[in-house]
Amino acid sequence: MKTVKLLIPVLFLILSTDYLFAQDKPTIVEVPEPPELMEFYEFDFKLSEKQEQKLLQRLSSKLRSELQYIKGIDEERYWDLLRETQYRGIEFPFMDKKDKEIYERNKQILDNEIITEALALRYERAKVSEQTKIKSDLMKALNALFDLKEEEKRLQVKLLEEELKELKQKLAVRAKNKSKIIELRFNELTDTGEYLEWD
Questions:
Q1: Is the pLDDT score of 83 beyond 90?
Q2: Quick one: angle between helices 97-125 and 128-176, nearest 10?
């Protein structure tokens, strides 16, 4: 018994000295060089002429002419606006009344965006004598666009309020049935309620 008592401190000293000596030689970890920064490229997302014509055919003659005007001045913006029109005319078979209203409003918003951008470009390039009429047309178009966007925001608020009301109702029902819900989950986790299923 006396040798065991003596052996434990000796082992402790031997083991602890290994750790002490290991700390004398710090290991130096070399930090790798950071990777080179990724280069960003401007990609050219132009559509083929066939795709371009197909999209333009879906638009009214007024929108086509406005887009052609924009293309002559700002080709990049033309392609952006044209790509945004690509969902026009696509039939979505499972849209309810609300979804159809949203879809139609978004089409109107895009149409007005195209018109206002074309009018703004015309205003910048017009003679002073023509600017008054163009400004008046632009202000009318901006007013209509603002109303459409505000109507869209009001609809979003209404939908969020309905969702919030439903969530509050769910919370109230869950709070009333807390013990039942916990019991059901306990049974699921422990497989103790296997005979309590409906079927």
A1: no
A2: 150
Q: What pLDDT sits at residue 3?
A: 58
Rounded alpha-carbon distances, angstroms, from residue 151 to 107, 143, 190:
14, 12, 51
User: Residue 95 has which token pair?
Assistant: 């849209």
User: What is the maximum alpha-carbon separation in the chain?
Assistant: 114
Angle at 174 between CA 173 and CA 175, to 5 degrees: 90
- Computed over every residue of the chain, the mean pLDDT equals 81
Single-letter residue type at 14? I
Q: Which residue has the tokens 């969530």?
A: 167
Q: Name the pTM for this structure.
A: 0.61
| Token pair recorded at residue 18 | 């290994």
Spatial distance between the Cα atoms of 75 and 47, rounded to a whole number of angstroms: 12
Q: What is the SS3 assignment for 12?
A: helix
Question: Which H or E run includes 26?
Answer: none
Contact 138, 119 (CB under 8 A): yes
